[in-house]
Amino acid sequence: MNLYEFSAVEAGKGLLVKMKLLLVVCLAVAASCAVAPRRPNAVVDFVPGNDNVSGRLQLYRTDYAGVLIQGKVSGLTPGHHGFHVHAEGDLSGKCTAAGGHFNPFQTNHGSPYDNPVRDRHVGDLGNIQADRYGNADIYIHDTVISLDPASHAYIGNKAIVIHQGRDDLGRGGNPDSLKTGNAGGRAGCGLIVPH
Ligand SMILES: [Cu+2]
Ligand SMILES: [Zn+2]
Protein backbone atom coordinates (compact mmCIF):
# COMPACT_ATOMS: atom_id res chain seq x y z
CA MET A 1 0.00 0.00 0.00
CA ASN A 2 1.49 3.35 -0.98
CA LEU A 3 1.01 6.50 0.99
CA TYR A 4 -1.82 7.74 -1.22
CA GLU A 5 -3.82 4.50 -0.85
CA PHE A 6 -3.24 4.45 2.93
CA SER A 7 -4.59 7.99 3.46
CA ALA A 8 -7.63 7.24 1.31
CA VAL A 9 -8.48 4.20 3.48
CA GLU A 10 -8.05 6.24 6.70
CA ALA A 11 -10.21 9.05 5.32
CA GLY A 12 -12.89 6.49 4.47
CA LYS A 13 -12.81 5.07 8.01
CA GLY A 14 -13.07 8.57 9.47
CA LEU A 15 -16.11 9.33 7.32
CA LEU A 16 -17.79 6.08 8.38
CA VAL A 17 -17.26 6.92 12.07
CA LYS A 18 -18.70 10.41 11.52
CA MET A 19 -21.74 8.97 9.73
CA LYS A 20 -22.36 6.45 12.53
CA LEU A 21 -22.12 9.22 15.09
CA LEU A 22 -24.57 11.35 13.13
CA LEU A 23 -27.02 8.45 12.90
CA VAL A 24 -26.90 7.92 16.68
CA VAL A 25 -27.52 11.63 17.32
CA CYS A 26 -30.44 11.68 14.86
CA LEU A 27 -32.06 8.64 16.46
CA ALA A 28 -31.64 10.08 19.96
CA VAL A 29 -33.29 13.36 18.94
CA ALA A 30 -36.14 11.57 17.17
CA ALA A 31 -36.70 9.27 20.16
CA SER A 32 -36.76 12.11 22.69
CA CYS A 33 -39.36 13.96 20.62
CA ALA A 34 -41.47 10.84 20.11
CA VAL A 35 -41.57 9.45 23.65
CA ALA A 36 -41.44 12.54 25.88
CA PRO A 37 -44.87 14.25 25.88
CA ARG A 38 -45.07 17.52 27.82
CA ARG A 39 -46.10 17.21 31.43
CA PRO A 40 -49.42 18.96 32.14
CA ASN A 41 -49.36 22.07 34.34
CA ALA A 42 -52.62 21.03 36.00
CA VAL A 43 -55.05 18.11 35.93
CA VAL A 44 -58.77 17.73 36.62
CA ASP A 45 -60.41 14.46 37.73
CA PHE A 46 -64.20 14.53 37.45
CA VAL A 47 -66.62 13.26 40.06
CA PRO A 48 -70.38 12.75 39.65
CA GLY A 49 -72.85 15.54 40.31
CA ASN A 50 -76.39 14.83 39.14
CA ASP A 51 -75.02 12.43 36.48
CA ASN A 52 -72.44 9.68 36.79
CA VAL A 53 -69.65 11.72 35.19
CA SER A 54 -66.04 10.58 35.17
CA GLY A 55 -62.91 11.46 33.23
CA ARG A 56 -59.66 13.38 33.32
CA LEU A 57 -58.39 16.58 31.75
CA GLN A 58 -54.82 17.75 31.21
CA LEU A 59 -54.22 21.51 31.26
CA TYR A 60 -51.19 23.12 29.66
CA ARG A 61 -49.90 26.67 29.88
CA THR A 62 -49.41 27.92 26.33
CA ASP A 63 -46.43 29.98 25.20
CA TYR A 64 -48.45 33.15 24.95
CA ALA A 65 -51.55 33.87 27.09
CA GLY A 66 -53.99 31.10 27.87
CA VAL A 67 -54.47 27.44 28.60
CA LEU A 68 -54.92 24.34 26.46
CA ILE A 69 -57.45 21.87 27.91
CA GLN A 70 -57.35 18.32 26.64
CA GLY A 71 -59.02 15.10 27.75
CA LYS A 72 -62.04 12.81 27.80
CA VAL A 73 -65.20 12.75 29.87
CA SER A 74 -67.93 10.11 29.99
CA GLY A 75 -71.28 9.57 31.70
CA LEU A 76 -73.01 12.54 30.05
CA THR A 77 -76.27 12.62 28.11
CA PRO A 78 -75.77 13.02 24.35
CA GLY A 79 -75.49 16.62 23.11
CA HIS A 80 -74.18 19.96 24.33
CA HIS A 81 -73.20 20.72 27.91
CA GLY A 82 -72.19 24.01 29.49
CA PHE A 83 -68.53 23.91 30.53
CA HIS A 84 -67.24 26.50 32.99
CA VAL A 85 -64.66 27.31 35.62
CA HIS A 86 -66.55 27.99 38.85
CA ALA A 87 -65.28 30.19 41.65
CA GLU A 88 -64.81 27.72 44.53
CA GLY A 89 -62.61 24.63 44.76
CA ASP A 90 -65.25 22.64 46.64
CA LEU A 91 -67.07 19.74 44.97
CA SER A 92 -69.46 18.84 47.77
CA GLY A 93 -73.27 18.87 47.54
CA LYS A 94 -73.24 17.35 44.04
CA CYS A 95 -71.00 20.19 42.83
CA THR A 96 -73.18 23.00 44.22
CA ALA A 97 -70.42 24.10 46.63
CA ALA A 98 -68.34 25.12 43.61
CA GLY A 99 -70.39 28.34 43.59
CA GLY A 100 -71.05 30.53 40.56
CA HIS A 101 -69.00 31.08 37.43
CA PHE A 102 -65.48 32.38 38.09
CA ASN A 103 -66.06 36.09 37.50
CA PRO A 104 -63.22 38.27 38.86
CA PHE A 105 -64.15 41.24 36.63
CA GLN A 106 -67.86 41.34 37.62
CA THR A 107 -69.23 41.06 34.10
CA ASN A 108 -72.23 39.37 32.46
CA HIS A 109 -72.20 35.75 31.33
CA GLY A 110 -71.26 35.17 27.70
CA SER A 111 -69.40 33.06 25.18
CA PRO A 112 -65.66 32.30 25.20
CA TYR A 113 -65.32 34.63 22.21
CA ASP A 114 -66.85 37.66 23.93
CA ASN A 115 -64.79 40.46 25.48
CA PRO A 116 -63.52 39.18 28.85
CA VAL A 117 -63.49 42.56 30.55
CA ARG A 118 -67.08 43.34 29.46
CA ASP A 119 -69.20 40.50 28.08
CA ARG A 120 -67.88 37.21 29.41
CA HIS A 121 -67.04 35.66 32.77
CA VAL A 122 -63.41 34.52 32.89
CA GLY A 123 -64.79 31.02 33.58
CA ASP A 124 -67.04 30.91 30.51
CA LEU A 125 -65.65 28.16 28.31
CA GLY A 126 -68.79 27.55 26.25
CA ASN A 127 -70.07 24.02 25.61
CA ILE A 128 -68.62 20.58 25.16
CA GLN A 129 -70.43 17.99 23.04
CA ALA A 130 -71.06 14.39 24.07
CA ASP A 131 -71.63 11.68 21.46
CA ARG A 132 -74.54 9.23 21.53
CA TYR A 133 -72.71 7.14 24.14
CA GLY A 134 -72.27 10.14 26.43
CA ASN A 135 -68.53 10.49 25.78
CA ALA A 136 -66.93 13.84 25.04
CA ASP A 137 -63.47 14.52 23.61
CA ILE A 138 -62.33 17.87 24.89
CA TYR A 139 -59.78 20.09 23.15
CA ILE A 140 -60.13 23.77 24.06
CA HIS A 141 -57.58 26.53 23.78
CA ASP A 142 -58.75 29.55 25.75
CA THR A 143 -56.71 32.76 25.88
CA VAL A 144 -58.45 34.32 28.91
CA ILE A 145 -58.08 31.77 31.71
CA SER A 146 -54.56 31.45 33.11
CA LEU A 147 -52.34 29.02 34.99
CA ASP A 148 -50.04 31.84 36.07
CA PRO A 149 -50.62 32.30 39.84
CA ALA A 150 -49.91 36.04 39.47
CA SER A 151 -52.84 36.50 37.05
CA HIS A 152 -56.32 37.72 38.05
CA ALA A 153 -57.59 34.99 35.73
CA TYR A 154 -55.69 32.20 37.57
CA ILE A 155 -57.85 29.06 37.69
CA GLY A 156 -55.71 26.86 39.95
CA ASN A 157 -57.64 25.29 42.88
CA LYS A 158 -60.99 26.30 41.41
CA ALA A 159 -63.47 23.82 39.89
CA ILE A 160 -64.60 22.93 36.40
CA VAL A 161 -68.33 22.17 36.25
CA ILE A 162 -70.05 20.34 33.39
CA HIS A 163 -73.77 21.11 33.20
CA GLN A 164 -76.68 18.88 32.26
CA GLY A 165 -77.91 21.32 29.62
CA ARG A 166 -76.61 23.56 26.88
CA ASP A 167 -75.14 26.99 27.67
CA ASP A 168 -76.98 29.63 25.60
CA LEU A 169 -73.84 31.82 25.81
CA GLY A 170 -75.73 34.86 27.03
CA ARG A 171 -78.01 34.93 23.96
CA GLY A 172 -81.12 33.46 25.62
CA GLY A 173 -82.98 36.74 25.86
CA ASN A 174 -83.82 36.41 29.57
CA PRO A 175 -82.09 37.62 32.75
CA ASP A 176 -80.67 34.20 33.69
CA SER A 177 -78.98 33.95 30.31
CA LEU A 178 -76.64 36.78 31.34
CA LYS A 179 -75.88 35.04 34.67
CA THR A 180 -75.68 31.30 34.03
CA GLY A 181 -76.44 30.70 30.35
CA ASN A 182 -79.42 28.55 31.44
CA ALA A 183 -77.15 25.51 31.38
CA GLY A 184 -79.20 23.65 34.00
CA GLY A 185 -78.07 21.32 36.78
CA ARG A 186 -74.53 20.15 37.46
CA ALA A 187 -73.74 16.85 35.79
CA GLY A 188 -70.27 16.57 37.29
CA CYS A 189 -67.27 18.59 38.45
CA GLY A 190 -63.57 18.39 39.19
CA LEU A 191 -60.90 20.33 41.03
CA ILE A 192 -58.19 22.09 38.96
CA VAL A 193 -55.05 20.76 40.64
CA PRO A 194 -51.85 22.57 39.65
CA HIS A 195 -48.69 20.46 39.32
CU1 LIG B 1 -71.17 26.34 35.17
ZN1 LIG C 1 -70.64 32.52 33.02
Automatic annotation (TrEMBL):
Superoxide dismutase copper/zinc binding domain boundaries: 53-192
Any GO molecular function: copper ion binding
Ligase found in the keyword field: no
Signal peptide: 1-34
E.C. number: 1.15.1.1
Keyword set, alphabetical order: Copper, Metal-binding, Oxidoreductase, Signal, Zinc
Function: Destroys radicals which are normally produced within the cells and which are toxic to biological systems.
Family that this chain belongs to: Belongs to the Cu-Zn superoxide dismutase family.
Name used for this protein in its record: Superoxide dismutase [Cu-Zn]
